[in-house]
Amino acid sequence: MSNDMNIVCLDLEGVLVPEIWIAFSEETNIPELRITTREEPDYDKLMKYRIKILKERGLGLKEIQQTIEKINPLDGAKEFLDELRNLTQVVILSDTFYQFGAPLMKKLGNPTLLCNTLEVSDSGEIVGYKMRCEHSKLSTVKALQSVGFETIASGDSYNDLEMIKASKKGFLFRSTEKIKKDFPMLPAFETYSELLTAIKNAL
What we know:
The chain is an alpha/beta fold. The protein has helices at 20-28, 43-57, 61-69, 77-87, 98-107, 136-146, 161-166, 177-182, 192-202, and strands at 6-10, 89-97, 112-120, 126-130, 150-155, 169-173, 188-189. It has a 7-stranded mixed beta sheet, with helices on both faces.
């Protein structure tokens, strides 16, 4: 199958950029905000927990965006993405929010990002969030397949497993030891060169 019928679906945080909530946790010295989808598979539970902590501390979207301005892509991420986009089509599938992800896309050369939306009050308080669709990563991969694409997927967390397993080829990237141990059938890589080679071989 030619490369134009393939589309690579990549997770964002932990794969191309640092985890936003961990960076914000360090910036604000609130250790409870370090928990991510690597540790908590239930995304709704995780987000409600985060929103509750933000409300208790009087923190809103502005404070998180100020932290995001200081975040740069992981070392080698933009070069990896540039090379990959020269080979085939790429889409970033993330459970982050456009209010978080948009500034980071500029630093990555403006790849396509499909993610969710925060509900923010006029005062800047984060009051909720809206998912793009149920099981957004899996749903997107299946939708792409339904219109003739073969998908290749990579991510690091529990919420990436569905799209990885549903794709023609799927890879873990810089995942946790627990996830790698629980899913030994999934190839796991630590460097961009390894991942790029695996994707090239899958095209």
